[in-house]
Amino acid sequence: xxxxxxxxxxxxxxxxxxxGSDRPEVSLHGEILARLRxxxxxxxxxxxxxxxERQLCEMLGISRTPLREALxxxxxxxxxxxxxxxxxxxxxxxxxxxxxxxxxxxxxESLAGRLACEIITDDEIGAIERLxxxxxxxxxxxxxxxxxQVNQRIHESIVAAARNETLTTTYANFAGRIRRxxxxxxxxRKRQRWADAMREHEAILDALRRRAGGELSDILFQHLxxxxxxxxxxxxxxxxxxPADTPRAG
Amino acid sequence: xxxxxxxxxxxxxxxxxxxGSDRPEVSLHGEILARLRxxxxxxxxxxxxxxxERQLCEMLGISRTPLREALxxxxxxxxxxxxxxxxxxxxxxxxxxxxxxxxxxxxxESLAGRLACEIITDDEIGAIERLxxxxxxxxxxxxxxxxxQVNQRIHESIVAAARNETLTTTYANFAGRIRRxxxxxxxxRKRQRWADAMREHEAILDALRRRAGGELSDILFQHLxxxxxxxxxxxxxxxxxxPADTPRAG
DNA sequence: AAGGCAAAAAATGAATGCAAAATTTGCAGC
DNA sequence: GCTGCAAATTTTGCATTCATTTTTTGCCTT
Lengths: 250, 250
Known about the structure:
The structure is a homodimer.
Chain A lengths: L27 H14 L8 E2 L1 H8 L3 H14 L2 E4 L3 E4 L4 H25 L2 H20 L2 H18 L3 H15 L11 H19 L3 H25 L13
Helix pairs in contact in A: 1-3, 4-6, 4-7, 4-9, 5-6, 5-8, 8-9
Chain A binds a DNA duplex through helix 3.
């Protein structure tokens, strides 16, 4: 397993790939649900704040009935908490919740890697290789935003390669839940961690090429574990997770 | 790793442990949801059949609004399909769906085993050991029902030992989805498979005792994979999965 | 002036009503 | 006798309405 990763710096030009945002929802209810979910995931409502039914109703131009149906679903998905007679609140992710979510994500990606090794095609591996080198370019450029974007697509590609719709859906659900914590902001301040992550990605690609399922499973788990540690450290020194129930917007 | 498993037969007396069915739901809506979920999981409605809103309403003594909210949640959980303007149908699990579900379950248990090895206490291992020997007793007795019951409790104990609420919830969700397929009926007709399963369980216990996370992860995945194969074979020779949209009750 | 209590206001949870879509039924034509 | 089409019935989806609970506001008491 070769590893030729410098500590970053050289100029390499790589075009950014535009990603198409698919939304295969057709029913009206599904549309409302997707919009609300995006609204939550994008963090338009502060952690732990009340979700005002009426306000959202007029914002979406619908009555309370379909909105409440959507809220029930979002609660089942874990994005909000539904307190009886006391309304919906955006679920406030504490340190423990984030650890749990990262671990489950680690398990799902670990599984995806194992399954992918059984059926992945050379073409699919080729596509992931291209993404890998694109990401490497962003790494050398120190372009964190581009890096994370491609990084995410690599992980999504591995999940997709497992060809398990149930897994893909579940993975997307947890990814949405965790997206609220902006770990991507500057969690890779530690230069060392960034370089480590690149090396781990090389190991991932290597195991994938060899279709070494069990090995890839271990590597992916450890990779996500390291991400988890970095994220926890980040929010420990940055904005404290869940400073209290202080709705900064009212 | 010792393995002293005969092909079954000797008489051993073991008392059956009663399990308490917890239902910590407090809100009315949660109650309705849980009841409906049980109703679905228990298979009171045939695969692919329409779910009559009105009928369920009077059955539960509620109006359509809360029922429809519950249906939306059940759809999000994957128990039913919600076709626009055409009502709810019990999700019909084809062979592919079952394979997918088993694989995801395998991934989750695999993860649970890995996590459990990091933090499990000797007492918890002891409890699992006791369950293991209890199950061994059922195996020797050829008591399939008791065997499966304890088997399930062992797997649940491993998941619980991971101390990850998110994982536990997700696991329970998938377990519920798959419970509709009654693979427990007689899928272990193959004596050989049953003996293999017992041996795998010994390996699980062994890895757990040694806190060998990665190893346990592999064993659990393979164990579930074998279960999957057995289940698929079972429904291939038994009642064909999804014989068609023939509601045998109307 | 601070704390507590009661009334008003708002919000939630559930039932009912209504328009649109789908399914069923009945009938005409071949 | 069977097929195809249109009216009637049922069902779905959403809006509105009502009862109950919570939250806020204002006033009274200490």
